[in-house]
Amino acid sequence: MTITVIGHLCLDIINHPDGKTSAGYGGIFFTVAALANLLEEEDRIVPVFGVGKDDYEAFIERIQQYPNVDTSGIYKFNGPTNQVSLYYEDGRERIECSKHISEPVPIKRIRPKLSADMILINMISGFDITLETLDEIRMEVRDEHIPIYIDVHSLTLGLKEDFTRFHRPLPEWRRWLFMIHGAQMNEEEARILTVEKFDELSLANHTLALNTKVLHITRGERGCSSFVDEHKHVRRFDTDGIEVKDVVDPTGCGDVFAGAYCAHYMKTHDIVASATFANRVAAAKAGISGSGEIDMLSSYRRHATAAEGHS
Q1: Structural domain that includes position 219
Q2: Is 54 in contact with 79 (CB distance < 8 Å)?
């Protein structure tokens, strides 16, 4: 099984509520590392993104620790890697400041890596790929029926002159969510995404009418809701939240959810079971600081193909 992963790498500087600061790889690294820890060695994860030339060798050395990650799609570019400073006020709410956002990943880098079983696009910066590139990806994989999964993530974020991010609607949201397997967003992103200010059920109805099979709305410690197209009817499945007694760092939980969902779905083709599994793994990530201990998620590997219940 092969999953191609597209999105921007970040160098995260996390400012915690207690005044402490931690740093590490972030952005698409969370998704790639989650997949690497959850899938078997014979599976193949193919990330496609650039790394600043000064950070390239150290990053490749880190990612090559995973035998199931093919690094041939990771390329070097001049200039610095995107640096993201995250300021948490209460352990969950945060202010984000992004400097040196990378150029969008060009289609010429992506096209050779589209022979896969699934394409996972995580809009880490919101500028990871252009809408035109997404259209080209859709055209390339359409005849092969390769599912595309998109984490909306920062598509709802604008960029101020001081590099802080702010929420704003996405006028082209229908084109982004058109004819894909699934879309993922958190509650705030779902509230902000549409110019029409749709509620969640209306958003789900409009999204699934675009020939998209599932919309996942994640709710942190309150679980997630999956809106699924079943024979042209929308069904809602709610996955219970998981109490994390000691939330160390929620950074990357959504990125981990996306990786865990795709890992489980490609093994089982069960949307609801895969969302339940992803919710469990994302909750585990909340108890880990940054990405330094993300390999602890390998304890969930044996569950990646197991059936999961839902409420």
Answers
A1: 2-303
A2: no
Q: Which residue has the tokens 């079943």?
A: 230
Instruction: Report yes or no on 232 lying in a domain.
Output: yes
How many residues does this entry show for the chain? Answer: 311
Residue 310 lies in a domain: no
Number of domains in the chain: 1
* pLDDT tens per residue across span 257-308: 999 999 999 999 999 999 999 999 999 999 987 788 999 999 999 887 765 5
Q: Which alpha helices (H) appear in 126-270, and where do they start and end? A: 131-141, 173-176, 187-193, 200-208, 253-268
In a domain, 203, yes or no: yes
Local structure of 41: helix, strand or coil: coil
In sequence order, what are the residues at sequence separation of 6 or more whose Cβ sits closer than 8 angstroms to the Cβ of residue 310? Answer: 237, 238, 239, 272, 273, 275, 276
pTM of the model: 0.92
Report the CATH number at residue 258. Answer: 3.40.1190.20
Q: How far is CA 230 from CA 147, 227, 235, 236, in A?
A: 17, 9, 7, 10
Question: In whole angstroms, what is the distance from residue 94 CA to residue 114 CA?
Answer: 35
28-50: average pLDDT: 97
Residue 242 lies in a domain: yes
